[in-house]
Amino acid sequence: MRYATVALTWGDRGIHPVDDLLRQAEAVTVTAVRDISPLPGSMYLELLELRGDVARAEALLESSPDVLGYNVAGTDERAVASVRFRSVGLVDDLLAVLYEHEIVLEWPLPILETGSTRGLEVTVVGSTGAIERAVAAVPDGIGVDLRRIGAYDPTANAFARSLTARQRELLAVAIREGYYEVPRRTTQRELAETLDLATGTVSEHLQRIEAALMAVYAETMR
User: Fold this and answer.
1) Composition of the chain by helix, strand, coil, percent to 5
2) Does 151 score more than 90 pLDDT?
3) Residues 68-120: pLDDT tens digits?
4) Which of 31, 105, 187, 203 sits between 20 and 30 A of 122, alpha carbons compared?
């Protein structure tokens, strides 16, 4: 059994009514999709993680004709929203890839956003052939960037699987050299020299490693 983690991205275009709606509120951020379930009558029920002005998010959901029902639970700055909406073009096509091929999604799906590019980081589990067929079936208009692939290890934790091979190597060296000890026994510049990398590259990798660790830790606190 294999796994693959891909970034599915699209430009600043409307393909998902809830995503488009909540992007109107700069104070609200959708950080991940916890689940999407098809419902009778060409509808979907989606569970979203929200951060920011949750009251503003509720007001937008209440006012939207595309939202057929919703429920929000959480604090003023962090919440989970269950949203029911009508099926739409590319959402249907994208979910069909999951249902038509013998692959399984790992939840949640982190939201990706850089400037005008939006998307999801998706990890799927299945045979090599099933994964290849699913990736090939991603509809036009959705960019596919393979980030990680390998043998699926059910005993590996989510943090380890979220790191690239280079990030795992850097983390191992950082721990070995005492970067995370108090006081630190090494610096980012020294790590960069050890690994023959630019200091900026080491800094960026360490930030991504720490962000991945915090995301996994946050899941355990729910």
Assistant:
1) 40, 35, 25
2) no
3) 999 998 877 788 999 998 876 667 777 788 788 889 988 888 887 655 677 88
4) 203
Residues 181-191 have pLDDT tens digits of 989 999 999 99
Instruction: Specify if 3 maps to a domain.
Output: no
Asked, for residue 144, whether it belongs to a domain, the answer is no
Q: How far apart are CA 123 and CA 205, in angstroms?
A: 20
The residue count for the chain: 222
**Amino acid making up residue 56:** R
Q: What is the chain's Cα-based Rg?
A: 19
Structural domain for 115, as ranges: 14-119
Looking up residue 162, the CATH number of its domain turns out to be: 1.10.10
Q: What angle do CA 139, 70, 64 make, to 5 degrees?
A: 70
